[in-house]
């Protein structure tokens, strides 16, 4: 058939759908260029054929599909949208075949899922084996398939394969597969990795062929048999499998021609075809109804028929990989995420298939979208990703429109996470037994504390409070014990208690709660401990299957600027624990997403995002009142200086603790204030002014002693760069006071001997900054994946 004939047929199919109501069952005549025999009759199904369902909120899906059909992007499709409790929208559009005979698309059409095989069959089977203790995600694949360990692949783990960071290529030549499975696998075993494990994200069919072989070696069954018995049958997916039989083939969507014969119920992928139709990367067939069962199982909150709730959390947990975020077998955020759409939560996982199939599931928002098509019919062209992305956006807009926020949120000033949660009527916490990590800085716009608001929220049971460093009042120093909250009578558990075990919620403290809410005001600096408190709380919650809800707040020193050396975490250091630069430019909500992925926590995490915050905004531009999160960050001005002056605090300098202006002054009894001020001015430290002062701290170092020093003032925030300022101040102090100042103690906070040695050698500031430049670039690239409020360069 000529291209012109196909184009006419595509147009006729599009018009048939676009003119009024759906054409299905209305006897629309096929174009003259195709035989007008009636569609093939469907054999009886093993399950009841689903009926169309249409939620009026999702009516815009019709328009999106009709336009794609009119543009010839696909011959037809089935779309399903649902939630944990059931289906909201289900509809068939267009044709499942133009040739050899025209057939309208039906809800029970069988589709070649192509690469959806990877998560639905292969990764699911691996997770069943993980759940049963038969394989370990961090075990080398060569433990199960010894031949795979050849040519330097012995360190590649199952986790590396599942997240596509194994160093294996995208694919190997088709001719390898034409010679049979053993030859194809043998050549994979002989491959030399192109990168070390974990160093590069390369979407790889090869890795899933290895995982398929792991399943076979461990169980004695190929993936088709094992998945059918241990995944599909338990989940009620009776029309899902490899090599569909005659009844399923009769209602399969046609793809392309192979050797002059139309592929119908025969795998489209050439490598899977030469492997006999069963492969770890492709070959699975299914229906929209069966995938609906699968998607609802992924949204289930407890154990499923296939695996435990704990394993499900691990299955869907985000993983930070170079240039992307992936889950085990799933996409989260990468170059392949265009078929998801906008408005989905950071916990959403999904995948697509080459033939035109898409599945996305959002455990946080509680919805899923299935778009199944044969976009390669008839000539191997078409495109479903843009349509699937548009449908995903429609779903997000429609199902989130009932949030109750109205137009007032963010209209003037910033609404923090607690303000948004309150405007929603606390619906995200309705019925929850809540533990709250917070202190006095956790407040709504009107000044009421988050403790008070949650204690009085209808349908919310506030069971316990957890305090970070500085206690519930944000006014204490040192390790503190828990106790009881005077106003609510609730138990208060200290997360800055005595001993290492006092840094995270205990099993006992979590026993009575199912949701841990975090509302802490971070300050945007790596050595402020609230990020570590968040990380430990999330890790404990993940272990005990407790949901985490982070109420986000502004980064008070802006969310654009990122600067300074990236920390190599110091073992057992609560201060120097996170691989962040000195100034990280992220909110606590964004950090929670990074921690969850970077440390493979699998925490059921939700971030209540702010409204109205712009990344370039310092706290004093938000319209929110500053409540000190700790006793020595009393003003925004002090907080702005903290990343520069605070790095000097590990030495024998006073940084103003015990005075009225902490972090705005620094000095010591052996410092000549005027001389230091003059030297610092000569150093040309951008954005800062220095003037001599003398002061007597009441507490902390040099308590009761007269100190000479300087008052530090930010004269130009745009020019001030804390890491450069710290470096300039440190180099000046080292020159003026080489004996009195304990220069080597800088490493207690810096934790980077290379930089300290360069400073000792009096290398130039530019040379020293170059030492951390590569690490900072890598962090900035990683950080982009977790930003919730626009990208880093666009305020």
Structural topology:
Layout: H1 3-18, E1 53-54, H2 60-70, E2 76-83, E3 86-97, E4 103-104, E5 111-112, H3 117-131, H4 158-162, H5 174-178, H6 181-189, H7 205-219, H8 223-232, E6 241-242, H9 246-250, E7 254-258, E8 261-264, H10 270-274, E9 284-286, H11 288-299, H12 309-316, E10 319-321, E11 324-326, E12 331-333, E13 349-353, E14 357-362, E15 367-373, H13 385-400, H14 417-423, E16 433-438, H15 450-456, E17 461-467, E18 483-484, E19 491-494, H16 507-510, E20 515-519, H17 530-543, E21 547-551, E22 563-566, E23 581-583, H18 588-598, E24 605-608, H19 636-645, E25 665-668, H20 673-682, E26 688-695, E27 707-714, H21 722-736, H22 747-750, H23 753-760, H24 765-783
Parallel strand pairs: 16-17, 16-20, 17-19, 20-21, 21-24
Antiparallel strand pairs: 1-3, 2-3, 2-15, 3-4, 5-9, 6-9, 7-8, 10-11, 11-12, 13-14, 14-15, 18-19, 22-23, 25-27, 26-27
What does this structure look like?
Residues 67-386 form the Beta-lactamase-related domain. Residues 27-51 are annotated as: Disordered. The structure is a single chain. By secondary structure, the chain is of the alpha+beta class. It has three domains: 112-401, 3-Layer(aba) Sandwich (Beta-lactamase), CATH 3.40.710; 417-621, Rossmann fold, CATH 3.40.50; 636-751, Aspartate Aminotransferase, domain 1 (Alpha-Beta Complex). The chain has 24 helices and 27 strands. The strands form seven sheets. Strands 1, 2, 3, 4, 13, 14 and 15 form a seven-stranded antiparallel sheet that branches. A hairpin with a 2-residue loop joins strand 10 (319-321) and strand 11. The longest helix is centred in the last third of the chain and has 19 residues, at 765-783. The chain starts with a helix and ends in a 12-residue tail after the last helix. The relative contact order is 0.08. The model is unreliable at 1-8, 10-47 and 402-412 (pLDDT under 50).
């Amino acid at each position: 058939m000529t291209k012109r004939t196909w184009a006419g047929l595509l147009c006729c199919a599009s018009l048939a759908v676009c003119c009024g109501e759906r054409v299905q069952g209305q006897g629309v005549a096929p174009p003259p260029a195709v035989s007008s025999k009636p569609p093939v009759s469907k054999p009886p199904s093993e399950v009841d054929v689903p009926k169309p369902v249409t939620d009026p909120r999702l009516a815009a899906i019709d328009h999106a599909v009709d336009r794609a059909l009119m543009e010839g992007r696909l011959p037809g499709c089935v779309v399903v949208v649902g939630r944990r409790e059931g289906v909201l929208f289900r509809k068939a559009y267009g044709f499942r075949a133009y040739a050899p005979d025209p057939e309208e698309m039906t809800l029970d059409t069988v589709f070649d899922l192509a690469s959806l095989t990877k998560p639905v069959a292969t990764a699911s089977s691996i997770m069943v084996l993980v759940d049963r203790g038969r394989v370990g995600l961090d075990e080398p694949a060569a433990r199960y398939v010894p031949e795979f360990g050849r040519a330097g692949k012995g360190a590649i783990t199952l986790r590396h394969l599942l997240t596509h960071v194994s160093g294996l290529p995208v694919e190997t030549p088709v001719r390898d597969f034409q010679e049979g499975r053993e030859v194809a696998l043998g050549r994979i075993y002989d491959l030399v990795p192109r990168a070390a494990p974990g160093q590069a994200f390369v979407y790889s069919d090869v890795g899933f062929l290895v995982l398929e072989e792991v399943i076979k070696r461990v169980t004695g069954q190929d993936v088709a048999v094992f998945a059918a018995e241990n995944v599909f049958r338990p989940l009620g997916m009776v029309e899902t499998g490899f090599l569909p039989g005659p009844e399923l083939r009769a209602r399969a969507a046609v793809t392309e021609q192979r050797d002059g014969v139309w592929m119908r119920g025969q795998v489209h992928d050439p490598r899977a075809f030469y492997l006999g139709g069963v492969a770890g990367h492709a070959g699975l067939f299914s229906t929209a109804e069966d995938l609906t069962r699968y998607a609802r199982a992924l949204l289930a909150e407890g154990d499923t028929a296939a695996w435990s709730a704990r394993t499900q959390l691990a299955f869907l947990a985000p993983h930070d990989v170079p240039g992307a975020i992936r889950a085990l077998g799933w996409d989260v955020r990468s170059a392949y995420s265009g078929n998801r759409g906008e408005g989905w939560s950071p916990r959403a996982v999904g995948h697509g298939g080459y033939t035109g199939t898409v599945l996305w599931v959002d455990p946080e928002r509680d919805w899923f979208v299935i778009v199944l098509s044969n976009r390669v019919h008839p000539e191997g062209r078409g495109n479903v990703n843009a349509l699937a992305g548009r449908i995903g956006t429609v779903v997000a807009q429609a199902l989130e429109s009932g949030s109750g926020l109205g137009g007032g949120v963010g209209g003037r000033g910033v609404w923090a996470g607690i303000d948004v949660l309150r405007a929603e009527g606390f619906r995200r916490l309705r019925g929850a037994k809540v533990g709250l990590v917070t202190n006095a800085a956790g407040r709504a716009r009107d000044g009421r504390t988050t403790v008070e608001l949650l204690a009085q929220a209808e349908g919310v049971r506030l069971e316990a409070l957890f305090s970070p460093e500085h206690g519930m009042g944000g006014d204490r120093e040192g390790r503190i014990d828990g106790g009881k909250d005077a106003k609510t009578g609730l138990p208060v558990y200290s997360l800055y208690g005595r001993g290492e075990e006092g840094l995270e919620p205990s099993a006992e403290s979590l026993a009575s709660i199912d949701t841990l809410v975090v509302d802490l005001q971070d300050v945007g600096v790596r050595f402020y401990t609230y990020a570590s408190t968040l990380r430990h709380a999330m890790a404990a919650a993940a272990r005990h299957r407790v949901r985490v809800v982070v109420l986000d707040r502004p980064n008070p020193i802006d969310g654009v600027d990122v600067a300074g050396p990236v920390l190599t975490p110091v073992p057992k250091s609560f201060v120097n624990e996170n691989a962040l630069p000195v100034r990280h430019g992220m909110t606590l909500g964004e950090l929670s997403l990074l921690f969850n992925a970077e440390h493979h926590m699998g925490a059921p995490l939700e971030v209540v995002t702010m409204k109205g915050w712009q990344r370039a905004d310092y706290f004093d531009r938000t319209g929110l009142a500053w409540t000190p999160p700790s006793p020595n960050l009393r003003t925004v001005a002090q907080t702005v200086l903290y990343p520069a002056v605070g790095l000097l605090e590990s030495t024998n300098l006073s940084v103003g603790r015990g005075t009225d202006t902490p972090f705005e002054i620094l000095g010591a009894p052996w410092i000549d204030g005027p001389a230091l001020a003059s030297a610092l001015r000569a150093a040309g430290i951008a954005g800062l002014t220095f003037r001599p002062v003398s002061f007597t701290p009441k507490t902390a170092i040099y308590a009761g002693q007269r100190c000479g020093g300087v008052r530090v003032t930010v004269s130009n925030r745009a020019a001030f760069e804390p890491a450069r300022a710290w470096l300039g101040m440190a180099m000046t102090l080292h020159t003026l006071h080489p004996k009195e100042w304990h220069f080597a103690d800088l490493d207690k906070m810096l934790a980077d001997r290379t930089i300290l040695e360069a400073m000792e050698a009096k290398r130039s500031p530019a040379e020293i900054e170059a030492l951390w430049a590569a690490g900072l670039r890598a962090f900035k690239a990683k950080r982009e994946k977790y930003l919730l409020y626009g990208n880093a360069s666009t305020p």
